[in-house]
Amino acid sequence: MLPQRAQALKAAGLARVTVSLDALDDATFQRMNDVGFPVARVLDGVAAAQAAGLAPIKINMVVQRGVNDAQIIPMAEYFRGTGHILRFIEYMDVGVTNGWRLEDVVPSAEVIRRINEIFPVEPVAAAYPGEVAERWRYRDGAGEIGVISSVTHAFCGDCTRVRLSTEGALYTCLFAQRGHDLRALLRQGSGDEEIAEAIRGVWLARDDRYSEIRGAQTAALKKIEMSYIGG
Ligand code: SF4
After folding, report:
1. For residues 7 and 132, what is the distance between their CA atoms, to the nearest angstrom?
2. Could you tell me the mean pLDDT of each successive run of 10 residues in the chain, 231 residues long?
3. For the chain, which domains are there?
4. For position 132, what pLDDT does the model report?
5. Is residue 125 classed exposed, middle or buried when 0-12, 13-18 and 19+ CB atoms within 10 A define those classes?
6. In contact, 196 and 190? CB cutoff 8 Å
């Protein structure tokens, strides 16, 4: 990316980058991403984003017990002192194809405890109301990490996220079973205000709180896959 473009994004407050990297161990990462994507190419992308001046760069690691939890400390060690913010995300039951089980979740409290034993950390106040990640920083000044506790501490009450599928359907929850069609409005020539009004109506009518009620009553729901609407 051209440096001027990065500067323009920075000026607009849009120069943030979020990258998914679940392990530094190549075999583990390739097994988890299902498409054999290598760690080296992710790290190359992170380096390119940094060289272009994009910041902060957030590295998202979904932690799954027995699959990549042994990578918690290596990942913390690797990204300490880089200025990048490593965020540990509790493994979620998004979609229906990942075979999710509660026992595979590594609670954020355990992640923090394990890191704190090696690299002492302390909590940091949220940057803004409703911030999804709980922030921590290394006591030796080597930077910040975050934990996203979508299973053990649901935050549906503060949720402000909508997702738009490539087919123009608006999803008001990561676990929604259906979206709201915006494409039809565009196709029939609706203007910005009309579309904004439609989005407002959808948002005001939503009552999503999947993570708060996760359990027997949600187990059988046919949910949308994250690959379809984004994380
Ligand atoms: S479960 Fe749905 S409403 Fe709750 S935090 Fe996640 S996306 Fe938001």
Report:
1. 26
2. 63 76 97 94 96 92 98 98 97 80 95 98 89 94 96 87 91 89 95 96 91 77 72 63
3. 3-153 (3.20.20.70), 159-229 (no CATH)
4. 87
5. exposed
6. no
Q: How many angstroms separate the CA atoms of 79 and 59, rounded? A: 9
Reduced to 3 states (helix: H, G, I; strand: E, B; else coil), residue 69 is: helix
Distance in Å, CA 139 to ligand 1 centroid: 32
Q: What is the pLDDT of residue 59?
A: 98
Ligand 1 midpoint to CA 162 (Å): 9
Half-sphere exposure (Cβ direction) of 7: Cα atoms closer than 13 Å: 3
Per DSSP, the three-state class of 79 is helix
Distance 208 CA to ligand 1 centre (A): 6
> What is the helix (H) or strand (E) element at residue 90, kind and residue range?
strand 85-90
Nearest CA to ligand 1 atom 4: 156
DSSP 158: G
Tokens of 139: 């006591």
Task: Spell out the residues 6+ positions from residue 75 whose beta carbon is closer than 8 angstroms to its own.
Answer: 21, 23, 24, 59, 61, 86
CB 48 within 8 A of CB 59: no
- Ligand 1: which atom is nearest the Cα of residue 155? 5
| DSSP code string of 16-31 | -EEEE---SSHHHHHH
- Report the 10 Å Cβ neighbour count for 124: 13
